[in-house]
Amino acid sequence: MNDSITDSVDIVVVGAGVTGLYAVHKLRGLGYRVRGFERGEDVGGVWYWNRYPGARCDVESVDYSYSFDEELQQQWDWSEKYATQPEIMRYLRHVADRFDLRRSYTFGTSVTSAELDERTLRWTVRTDGGEVVSARFCVYAVGCLSSAHVPDVPGVAEFGGATYHTGAWPHEGVDFTGLRVGVIGTGSSGIQAIPLIAEQAAHLTVFQRSANYSIPAGNAPLDEETRGRQKAGYAERRRLSRLSGGGSPHTGHPSRTFEVSEEERRAAFEERWELGGVLYSKTFPDQLTDRAANDAARAFWEEKVRALVDDPGSADLLVPTDHPIGTKRIVTDSHYYETFNRDDVRLVSLRGNAIERVDGGGVLLADGTRVELDAIVFATGFDAMTGAIDRIDVRGRGGRRLKDVWSEGPRTYLGLGTDGFPNLFNLTGPGSPSVMANVVLCAEQHGDWLAECLSHIDEYGYRGIEASAEAVEKWVGECRDRAAATLFPAADSWYLGANIPGKPRVFMPFIGGFGVYGDIIAGVADSGYKGFDLL
Ligand code: N01
């Protein structure tokens, strides 16, 4: 063993979010020695960091939960249709305790680099805690939304009040009572936080650069009877989810938008509106591929939202005009639009009137308007999908850096591996459904595939596995072509990296659907790992 190596294991797993936890559980169950590292002080991943008021999942709690253990899913009781961040944290802590996962992790520790030894095909993983771990396999489960993006607004350091980012919220919470607060950003985080901050603050200014499509969650407590029904139907619910596009059991209308009468179309939109949230984008199967179909869905949405907002001027600003509905993730809100009916809330559009700078007492806009503030909340999103991996200095064959290999966009085969980086796996990230689907089921899908793959490698006495350059090239093309056949590229979304100045415009997730993807990766395994080289 190299002198500087502090530990030698079979597998290093980076991240203790939904994906990392399952990977540790599954791989440890096969007898592998696993070390996990987690930047946060506890399990939870994105749920550990995003503690802003109103943080809540936009997938129903009954679906946003592990399926691998029947007793777990029968015994755990969700209290609401959509779980809050604290409840999801309780659940993930419970899972970590129940399966004794914490003992494999070192918390409060970031992996800073991983370097391949081409001779042994082992990875040397270094942490900011000074550990140097040698591992046969390196598994990234670092999350797609875990690198907070704070825009480079001049003068923020001079601001006299406090500043926050929704994705790095103080654990002790924030009391906005009596304060004049500004929220910058109206994506899911901003839209969830705004109604609750408005209730507490003396005055709230919402700075909106782009309006977003949001749909009321229709959230409600789950009573015993509903819970019982859901649990009794879990097997079927999971079966449908595994076949679905997004990892949930809801199926859309069987016909295309204009194959049905106006009356039936409106009834279908109404039903989806009542179901609440993000699934509205899949009311009809052609909604995200056909402009006219999308417009019909958009028009129904607009009618609904205008009815919620008293002031027509504010409503004009709140209705997006720059992207088809659903091509950015539809937000699932609770009382967002009604918040703009309050006297103590002001909506400021930044379109053509950007924030020029922040000074000691507030925000200055390009047209000279000054907004006095005591606190600023950045709800400005993430360097999504690649940001967290980019923070780690990953060096593969010939010392090539993964960040450089991905400089024109992520290059993977099935999202799982990249040529030149043998024995390194990336779970629920770019090149897989990840952010387009229920990530808990994505975590299980990838964790199970990985476990089978490693068992195969060991069963046949290989040292490792590496995606071929040809397979990577083809998969990158397939992801690009599938996205190009939809309306998604029409939006300046974080799916395309458009929110980060200078980031290449590449549609990063696999958009073909969770079920379709599951069939593809299962087929690859069945074929003896076609597209990978077994080493
Ligand atoms: O981030 P976002 P998010 N000046 O990138 C604005 C998931 N999520 O944290 O659209 C002014 O969507 C930016 O404006 P624009 C979910 O998948 C889920 O809200 O770029 N404004 C936008 O309005 C979601 O999609 C839940 O013009 C600036 C906002 O900041 C993803 O995470 C809850 C700016 C950023 O929106 C990300 O959501 C929360 C600037 N310089 C998040 N820079 C659930 O419901 C950026 N903006 C589970």
Task: List the topology elements.
Blueprint: E1 7-14, H1 18-29, E2 34-37, H2 46-49, H3 70-75, H4 85-98, E3 105-106, E4 111-117, E5 122-127, E6 132-140, E7 162-165, E8 180-184, H5 188-200, E9 203-208, E10 214-216, H6 224-232, H7 234-243, H8 262-275, H9 291-306, H10 312-318, E11 331-333, H11 336-339, E12 345-349, E13 355-359, E14 362-365, E15 370-372, E16 375-378, H12 387-390, E17 393-395, H13 402-405, E18 424-426, H14 439-459, E19 465-467, H15 469-484, H16 514-526, E20 532-534
Parallel strand pairs: 1-2, 1-6, 2-3, 4-17, 6-18, 7-16, 8-9, 8-16, 9-12, 10-11
Antiparallel strand pairs: 4-5, 5-6, 13-14, 14-15, 19-20
Bound molecules: 3-acetylpyridine adenine dinucleotide.
3-acetylpyridine adenine dinucleotide (N01) binds at residues 57-58, 145, 151, 166, 184-190, 192, 209-210, 329, 332, 350, 355, 379-382, 435, 494, 499.
Throw out a few tags for this protein.
16 helices, eight-stranded mixed β-sheet, five-stranded parallel β-sheet, globular, 535 residues, alpha/beta, binds 3-acetylpyridine adenine dinucleotide, FAD/NAD(P)-binding domain
Give the ligands present: 3-acetylpyridine adenine dinucleotide
Summarize the main sheet.
8 strands, mixed
Distance between the termini: 22 Å
Radius of gyration: 23 Å
- The CATH topology of one domain is given as FAD/NAD(P)-binding domain
Strand tally is 20
CATH architecture of one domain: 3-Layer(bba) Sandwich
Beta-strand percent range: 15-25%
CATH class label of one domain? Alpha Beta
CATH superfamily of one domain: FAD/NAD(P)-binding domain
Organism: Streptomyces gardneri
GO molecular function: flavin adenine dinucleotide binding; N,N-dimethylaniline monooxygenase activity; NADP binding
Pfam families: FMO-like
InterPro entries: FAD-binding_Monooxygenases, FAD/NAD-bd_sf, Flavin_mOase-like
